[in-house]
Amino acid sequence: MPDAVFVDCRGLTADDVAQFLLREFDAAESPASLISGALSIRSGGVGLLANVQWADRFVTSNEPSRITQQVIRTLKQFSRPTLQFVVERSADRPWVLAPARNDIVLTSPIGRENGDDARFTEVARLVERYPSLQALAAAELSTISLSLWAELCRCLDIQASPGELGELPEALADLLITYEVSETEREVGFRAESDRYRIRRLHPVDQGSLLSSLLRQLETHDARSNRTTSALGRYAAQTVGVHAAPTPAASKTC
After folding, report:
1. Where is 166: in which H helix or E strand?
2. Same fold, 4-87 and 121-243
3. Each residue of 21-48: pLDDT tens digit?
4. Which of 64, 113, 207, 244 is 20 to 30 A from 31 in CA distance terms?
C-alpha cells in the first residue's frame, strides 16, 4: 500500500505512537503539542496500527483508547494532508473504541469457528498441569523476572520454586517467551497476550490477596534504594494502583 505507515502498538504508549506517526508523516521536529504537530504534517497517507488492544507495558491500561480516541482523532482533524487509519483491535475488548463507525469484522475461515474454543481447552489443560501460569497471568506487567514470578506464586499460595519456573519457558515454548534483560537476568511473558486473558477468564485473579501482599511490601519499600528492594517491592511500587482499580470488563468503557 503506497504511503502507508505500519505501527505495532504492542507495549507502546499513546505518546510513543504519536511521536512515531508524526515523524513518519513528516511533521516538524519536537512540536509543542499533538495539535501543533498535526498542523505541521507535510505528507498524507495511511496509518496501519496493529495490536492496539495490547498497547502499553501495563496489562490493564487506558493507552489503547488514548491511541484511538486522542491520537488518531487529533491527527485526522488537524492534519492538512489527508490521513486515514486502519486499526486492529480485539472484538472482545469493547473499551478500545474505534475512531469511526466503519468497522470491518474479519470472521474465521469456514471450519475454524471453534478454534478459540479449542485454544481455551488447551490453555485450561496447561494451567491445570502448571498452576504457576495463573500467577504469570495475574501480573500487570507484560513481562516479569523469574524472581518476581516466584514471589507472585507465593502471594497466591501457588507452590513453585524458581528452578521449576525457569524450566517452563522452554517446556512451554508455544505459550511463553523469554527476554534477556541482562547477563544474569531474563524476563518471561506470554507469546500471545490473548492467552493471558484466557487464563484470567478461567481463573479470575484474587486481587484481594494480591493487593494485600503488595501493600505490605510498600510499607517497607524505599523507592530510592531499588537495588536492595525485593522484586515484589519494586513491582508493588509500579503496579499497586493498577491492581487496586476495578477490572476493565467491569468498569472500563472509554
Report:
1. helix 162-171
2. no
3. 999 999 999 899 999 999 999 999 999 9
4. 64
